[in-house]
Design a protein that fits this description.
With 228 residues, the protein is an alpha+beta fold. It contains 5 helices and 15 strands. It has a 7-stranded antiparallel beta sheet with strand order 1-11-7-15-5-4-2. Strands 3, 6, 9, 10, 12 and 13 form a 6-stranded antiparallel beta sheet that branches. The chain has a two-stranded antiparallel sheet with strand order 8-14. Helix 1 crosses helix 4.
Length: 228
């Protein structure tokens, strides 16, 4: 894992400007392949979800159980402190009284206060025709406004990562990304502050995955808050 090479100032600027940031080569090919291989090892997971059953799309994903694999735990613990100041800036300009703690362990303590104790980190698998409908990953009353996905495979076509920004009294804006294997996308869980002539307002955002035309698409999804 190559977290020490991330330009967090550039990430901060991108998050403020557009609500997402793409960071190249965060995981090595070997780390990605290891996570994909472990997909079929049931001891790592607490729940498997068929997207078709819940009309979420077409594909499957699995929620990890605690304790998380060391690689994923490290990713959560080291990325969160870089994002907390950005989150608090967003709350401030939107005049929302929430203040997020500086360290990840303290964030988990807040989750426990809200009876949110189930891990939300997941790995997603899509085959041909697979897709994920637009959604938000909230999981409870308390949520951290950022999450991330890491692309774990590259032998597929289609399957673009899609963000939709919905602004009041305006048409929605689509953002389509194709991260490479090992690349990380940081994006807003719910909304971002957008500047107007009178201040800031909430621009609602959802995310999903376009249809996979060929191959197999695997991604790691890291949500920082836990679920009820």
């Amino acid at each position: 894992m190559k977290l020490e090479n991330i330009n967090w100032q550039a990430v901060t600027e991108a998050m403020h400007a557009q609500g997402y940031a793409v960071v190249k080569d965060v995981l090595t090919a070997k780390e990605c392949d290891g996570l994909v291989k472990a997909y079929n090892e049931p001891e790592h997971y607490r729940k498997t979800i068929s997207m078709e059953r819940y009309r979420f799309g077409q594909g499957e994903y699995k929620y990890f159980s605690y304790p998380l694999p060391p690689l994923i735990q490290q990713l959560r613990e080291q990325v969160y402190p870089q994002l907390a100041p950005i989150a608090n800036d967003w709350m401030r300009v939107l005049k929302i009284p929430t203040v997020y703690p500086a360290e990840f362990e303290a964030l988990q303590a807040v989750c426990r206060e809200h009876q949110q104790t189930q891990p939300t980190v997941l790995i997603l698998q899509y085959g041909r025709g697979g897709h994920n409908t637009l959604h938000q990953d909230l999981y409870g009353d308390f949520f951290f406004p950022f999450q991330l996905v890491v692309c774990l495979s590259e032998d597929y076509t289609g399957g673009e990562f899609v963000l939709i920004e919905q602004r009041p009294r305006a048409q929605s804006k689509a953002i389509v990304l194709r991260p490479g294997k090992g690349d990380m996308v940081i994006f807003t869980t719910n909304f971002r502050p957008a500047k107007s002539t009178t201040g800031y307002y909430r621009a609602n955002m959802k995310h999903g995955v376009s249809e996979v035309r060929n191959g197999s698409r695997y991604t790691l999804g890291v949500i920082f808050h836990d679920a009820k």
